[in-house]
Structures are given as structure tokens and as C-alpha cells.
Design brief:
Number of helices of chain B: 5
Structural class of chain A: alpha/beta
CATH superfamily of the largest domain in chain B: VC0802-like
Radius of gyration of chain B: 16 Å
Oligomer: heterodimer
Structural class of chain B: alpha+beta
Strand order of the largest sheet of chain B: 2-3-1-4-6-5
Number of domains of chain A: 2
Radius of gyration of chain A: 23 Å
Distance between the termini of chain B: 20 Å
Helix content of chain A: 25-40%
Number of strands of chain A: 24
Order of helices and strands of chain B: EHEEHEHEEHH
Strand order of the largest sheet of chain A: 4-3-5-6-7-8-9
CATH class of the largest domain in chain B: Alpha Beta
Number of strands of chain B: 6
Distance between the termini of chain A: 27 Å
Largest sheet of chain B: 6 strands, antiparallel
Largest interface: A-B, 17 and 21 residues
Number of domains of chain B: 2
Largest sheet of chain A: 7 strands, mixed
Chain lengths: 443, 146
Amino acid sequence: MSKNPNAPAGTFHPVSAPDFLPLPQLRALQLQRLKQIVERAYERVALFRQRMKERDLTPEDVTRLEDISKLPFTVKTDLRDTYPFGLFASPMKEIVRLHASSGTTGKPIVVAYTREDVQVWTNVMVRSFAACGLHEGDIIQNAYGYGLFTGGLGAHYGAEALGATVIPISGGNTQRQLMVMKDFGTTAICCTPSYFLHLIDQAEEEGIRLKQLPLRAGVFGAEPWTESMRRRIEADSGIKAYDIYGLSEIVGPGVAMECECQAGPHIFEDYFYPEIVDPKTGKPLPDGEEGELVLTTLGKQAMPMIRYRTRDITALASDTCDCGRTLRRIKRISRRSDDMFIIRGVNVYPSQVETALLKVEGALPHYQIVLTRERDLDVMEVQVEVTPEVFGDTVGALEQLQQKLSRSIESTVGVRANVRLVQPRTLQRSEGKAKRVIDQRKL
Amino acid sequence: MKVKQLSLFLENKPGALSHPIKLLAKAGFNLLTLSLADTQQFGILRLVVRDWQKAKKRLESAGFVVKVTDLVALEVADEPGGLARVLACLEKAGVNVEYMYGFTLKHEGKGLLAFRFDDPDQAIAALQRKGMKPVSSAELFKRLED
């Protein structure tokens, strides 16, 4: 492992330079960009302007970085309420790309990129790959899904711009993944950590010895994972497992990425300004304290996000990393501040499941979502209390109900769910409000 | 002519069956018959009691989902071909048997079966045309108490 940013082994890509900016310069750059983006959003995004006016603020009120805490938050529902294009700050002729992620009502959340935004995104993805020691000559198997999901194309553009060879294999088809990995000499893979664990198991079944392949790095993200998963991946496959963080609302993957020290993802702060706030009060918290991560895009033209509440609970580490990067790091994201959960890389809200149940039953039954991990793949079970309205007295009628519910959930949420019918009053309720999600996944 | 049956939804897990049975026993209900349909995940307990309205209330207040359905209780000669004759009659009439189960009770050399039809009235009419007379609730309860 090289700790010298100028190491000759190719671990330093010129694009990585901003990673090592001296702090005063980094802060000055952030302030300059913050002012620009606030002005842009104020001029071009009605919702933001209105909220600024309600607070008696104008862009001129941002004179120091700390002033950011005066600005209004943006939340996920804002994207939904303004669906599809309400938060865009660029006319469509300047927008070269749209992506979308799953939303709560079946409507996705749409995000837009100008040509410049795609360049910014590519830039941070190159820096992500470079940070974990990938470079020209590497063969990167991109097993993130291509399509509306930002993971696939984000990693693809970054890997190409890095100068690596990209295999745009997309997600799924485990056997083909392994065949390609072996035959093409893949040196790095991008996918969700749970999927890689699945690949490890499958490789073993097929007698493919991962440790003897050229594969040496994994860029894992799109779902929360833990240190013990990292240890297992590294021990079983012989690769280095790196944590990448991102979300579509901000840019996609590449908001933050671990360096070779594996000490938590560095936020590319020159483009994404991080704050930690108390999730209940919204008050800013100092570095080191745990709270909700709030991000402001400093360089996005098409869709500036000012103080976006990520719902991810973490803390900012500002101590110097051994790699020499001055960028702050985020601690592993342990949980979310709301009920949203991520299953097989898909964001799911309990309210989506509610919508699906409601469609079938006409009234909302008591339900509970139980997440488990079987053979390293996430499994979602939706337990539904049987109501007199839907209870037919034959086995066939109940099985039909089960199937209908299952299909409705899959078509609304996009993820298969096992439906289990349970007796009334058996699901846990607390303070009158049911606990909707029980996550038993041992990460 | 029809007999009221209570159907309960149960989860397929230890203790699931004994809970409602104990509950009814404690409240003094005598089960005239019962059957259990089950899958890996859930089961349906079907039972006949005399005072079904009260039993239903009792079960519902304990949190069970209870459905009331109509059964047809039918005497079938306890000899080879006894059931086949009944079924043939129903088949001709185009009545569908959802399920059936037996009472433990025998009466004058005849067995007593509980049928759940998709259309009980049509079934009763078809049976009566062939001279087969379903046993009414009153008669059923009387016999059980003899």
C-alpha cells in the first residue's frame, strides 16, 4: 500500500489533486462554490427561492462557510412533490442526462445532469477509483446495474476516464460474471457487497478459486455494510474491499470513496459539502459527533441540492488520514434516520409496501417487513395480518391472496417479497404505531 | 337444512391449534366436529358448535379471524359405494364440493359427513330430488346429545 500521494505505481492520478488541497485553500474553494450554487438555485429554483424568502435570506447572506447552516434544508419529499422536473435549474436543452431512483409513491425521483455535471461526476468517480489504487491497465468489471439507476453509468464513465478497461456487464447472471472475471482477467469489480459475497459462494461451488485470479480490488456500495463483511470478503476472496458512498439526489456513486487506508470514505468536499445535523432538531453538530449527513452540491448545474437531508446517520472524521488526503471521511453508515431500507441495492420505503397492500386488500392491514439475509442475498418477508374482509375459508383462497399481495409488492417496489399471512394482533405494535421494519440482516 | 360452521385462520406454528380449542373448552363449548386444513405456513381450523354466535364472539374477542360458512350435513350409508352415490348425484347437478369431513357420530348404520359446497342451496335441492335428506342443525344437535 502506498501512502505517498505521488507514488509512481500509478496510484496517484492527476485528477486526484484536489484530494490533497491544503485546508485553507479547500475551504476557500468551497465558499466560492457555495456562493455560486446558492445564487444559481435562488435565481432558478422556485422552491428554494421561496424558502429563502420565508427566512428573509438572499444569496448575499452567505459570506462564510458557516452561513450554510442558515439555509433551508432540502428533503426527499421535495423531489417527489416537484416530480418530475421541478427542481431543475437548467433548461432541458442543456440537460444531457436523466436518471431516476425509486420513490415512495411508485413515482421515481428524477435527477438531471448538464454536460458539465456529467464531467463532475466522472471526475469524482476517477478520483474514487484512483483513491483505491486503480489505474490505467486495470480491468474493471462493472456489475452495478446499468439504466436509470446511477450506479452503472457512474462507475462506467469514471472507469473509462481513469484509463482502465471497463467490462459493462451490469448486474446479475452470476455464472457469467464468474466466467468473465476468470477469462478476461478482471482486476477490480464494482457491485454491492452482498452480491460479491454471493459471487464468492458461487465461485466456490463452481470450483473457481478467486484468490488465484488477478482480481485485487472491489468497489462496494449502494447498500450499507459492515467491517465484519469487509473482513469476510477479504479473507475469502483475497481482494481489498473498498467502501464507496453516493446517492442519486446528490450525483450517484462517487460522493465519497475510501482510499487505500480503508479508514472510511473521503467525501469529495470540493464538490459535495458535508454537514452533520441532529436528525430531530436539524441543528448542526461538530465533526466527530454522530448525526444525519446533510450534503450540498457545490458544482451541480442542472439540479443544485442545497442542504439535502440524506437520512444516513454517520459522523465526520476530520483527523488526517495516512494517505495524505485532506478530505474529511464519513464513518460507516450504520442506520438511516427514517424507515427507508435498502434491499439488493434498491431503496424501499414501507409506504411503498403499504401502497401495494392497499391495492389488493382495499384497506391497510397491519403488516411488518422482516429483512433477513439468506446465502448472502437479502430477503424481504412481508408479514400481513389476516383480516375478516380478506379471509376466505379455503386454502386456495388464502394462497391466492398471498400471491396477489406478493405480485403487487413486486410491481410497486421492484423487489420480490415473500408474503406470510399471520394471525391478527400478532405483529408488534409500539405506542399505537407499528414497528414496520425489522432488519435481521447480520451485516 | 344448513349447519353453521366457524372457520378460523391459524398460523402453522406450535400452540396455534391448542389456543382456540382451550379457549372454547374454558367457555364451555362442546365441539361437535372439527377439521384442519393446512399448508406449510398457515392452517384453517373449521369447527361446528351449537351456540356458534357466542363462540364466534368469544373467539373474535380473543383476536381470531372467524368466518361463518354453511355446511350441509349428510347421512351416508356406511357401506362400499355409499359416498360414491352421493357424489354422483352432486356431480350431475354440477355442484362443486369445496371440502368435506366427517362427524364421529354414527346413526342407524349411517355415517354423517359435513360438506362445504360452493352453492349449498343447489346441493340441497339436488340431494332432495334423489331422496337424500340433509340433517338439519336441530336434528344434528339432538342426536349428539342423545
